[in-house]
Structures are given as C-alpha cells and as structure tokens.
Amino acid sequence: MTGDGTTGRGTTGRGTLIVGSGLIGTGTARRLAAAGEHVALVSRRPPAVPAEAYGARWRPLDATDAEACRRLLYDLRPGRIVLVHGPSDVTWCEDHPDEARAAHVAVADTFAALAPDARIVLVSTDNVFGGDSARNTESTAVSPANAYGRAKLAAEEALLAKAPRAVALRVSLVYGHEPADAGKWLNFFAACAHRLLRGERVEAPDDHWTTPVLLGDVAEVTAALLHAGHPLPPVLHLGGPDRVTRAEWAGIIARALRAPADLVTPLPRARTRYASRPVNACLGSEVLATLPATENIPVRGVREGARLLAPAFAGPPPV
Predict the structure, then answer these.
(1) Which residues of 268-303 are buried (b: 16+ CB within 10 A; e: fewer)?
(2) At what angle do helices 188-197 and 302-314 cross, to 10 degrees?
C-alpha cells in the first residue's frame, strides 16, 4: 500500500485480516490468535463470541464498500488476508443470484486491487462443480451446480486475475461446534447434534455425497497457507478423507452422542433443502499433501471428528 493508501503494494505484514465472522472466519481467527498473531476480524455484525475473548479484534465493515476497505487496509496494513465473505446460504443465493454474485465478486475484486502483494486466501466451495464426479480435484473442470457456486467461481476469477500471491482454497462441507442458543446453526453437524440431543428427528438425504472437513483442520491448513514461504498454486482443494451421505453422517453423529439411531430419517435429496446441491459435493486434492507448508497436517475423518466434538455438545462448550 502506498502512503496515500490507494494500493496494497508495500504492505508491512502487520498480522492477518479476516473478512467474515462466520464459522470459518472465527475458527481461523482463533487458530491464529492462539499462536500469538495479531488478528483483525471484520464483518457487518459482531461475531457470536466476542473476538477479544480469544485474543483477536473485531471491527465493523461493509466489505462491499470499496472506500471503507481502502481506509481499513491503510490503517491495518496486513500482510495476510482471509476472505470468507458474502452470502453462503445456497437457497438464498438461488433466489437472489445477481445479488449473490455481486457481493462475492465485489469484495474479491476490491481486496485484489487494493492489496495485490498480500498473501490472500479466498475460501471457496465444492459447489463450483456440477456433481458428476465422486472426487473433484484441482484438475477437474468446473461446472457450478447452482447460483452460489457461480458466485464463488466468479469471485475466484476476480481475485486471481489481480493478486499473484492469492489462493482459492475450495473446501468441502465444514463442521464444528456451535452453541445450542446460536439461533441459526451454520453447519450440519451442529444442527444434527443439537436436535438429536433434544430427541428431535433429523431428516437427511441418502443420495447426497460429501467429504466433510473439521473446522480445526480448515483453520490449520489456512494458517499454513498464509505463512507459506514458498509459491502456492492458485487453486487448492481441502476435503475430508471420508465420502459419506448426509444421512450416513447423521447416523455417525447420533452414535457419537449416544442418541437413538432411529431419530435419523433418510430421504431423497429432492425432498430436502439440499435439492439444489450437487449430488457429489466431494473434494480431493492432488496437490495439498505435496506442499511443504501442508504436507504434515492430518485431515481427520468424520468418525474421529464426531468423537472429538461430542463432549462439547453433550457438556459445557469449549472455552
């Protein structure tokens, strides 16, 4: 960034800026802050848990306001940026495709233009694929399944066209702990866990395949990419090692929580809210495990993830 703050060239690397305070944004902020890094978290509304509680800072920002972003970057001068912005409700995006695309692309384009020399990681999605393949890798041809996938793909293209050190990290279904009183749970695991513990029925498709990835593993990989001391490919994939249907996964969650298995009701995808998702929302990587920054990071399967998370849902939430 120059002295007048009009460009990102010359950023001094004072910590990491995370744009978006949802599940992945706050999970990554926690991971970086725990390592002693200066972390600024920005979003329209405050995160559910105050960022200061785990050593980060939160500031309000409408990331679609380019001038506000310019002022923020001039003030913070981050060397690393994580973009987890924009509407992520697939159904909402399907109903508002132009608004979804505009929001995702505008933010990616703004940060690419203002901070082209920063290491930027854009968290993208498996929805950039049509669902024909059981394993989508970095070399699989993209064919977005829905409006959300089209918006994310357009954001990837906008970012990578202007920021040579940027990475689009496509992640599969991310899951982690969320409190029971969160209002609207942001991940499938939390929604299942809280309903099962209340004795409520969980309906899940038995013909919708995914490769779920634990939030802690996403945060670990993202942190490693931000600090990688070597060039990175422009596109990387991160999915879990297990390919499961949502119904199968809900059964695994029920067993981990010792909830009645018959509370899980398998249904066809077309009869659920997941009808617009690709049949195979599955990601694999040909590259991630070969990179020096990430080759030693284990990515855990759904059974280990359920075992690790179950105590937090059944008992006091994690600090």
Answers:
(1) ebeebebebbbbbbbbbbeebeebebbeeeebbbbe
(2) 50
Domains of the chain: 16-176+212-242+282-287 (3.40.50.720)
CB hemisphere CA count around 45 (13 angstroms): 5
- 37-84 pLDDT, tens digit each: 999 999 999 998 999 999 999 999 999 999 999 999 999 999 999 999
Question: Where do we find the tokens 């945060």?
Answer: 219
Structure tokens at 169: 């990290």
pLDDT tens across 285-296, in order?
999 999 999 999
Contact 171, 126 (CB under 8 A): yes
Residue with tokens 């495990």: 289
Pairing state between β 16-19 and 244-245: unpaired
Helix residue ranges per DSSP H, the chain: 23-34, 66-76, 90-95, 97-114, 147-162, 188-197, 215-226, 246-257, 302-314
Q: At what angle do helices 302-314 and 246-257 cross, to 10 degrees?
A: 50
C-alpha distance from residue 102 to each of 18, 98, 145, 152, 158 (Å): 20, 6, 18, 10, 11
Give the sheet arrangement for strand 209-210, strand by strand.
Answer: 244-245, 209-210, 280-281
Contact 284, 171 (CB under 8 A): no
Identify which of 60, 203, 218 has the alpha carbon closest to the alpha carbon of residue 125: 218
What pTM was estimated for this model as a whole? 0.93
Q: In the block, which residue shows the tokens 């284990």?
A: 298
Q: How far apart are CA 20 and CA 222, in angstroms?
A: 14
Instruction: Compute φ and ψ for 111, nearest 5 degrees.
Output: -70, -30
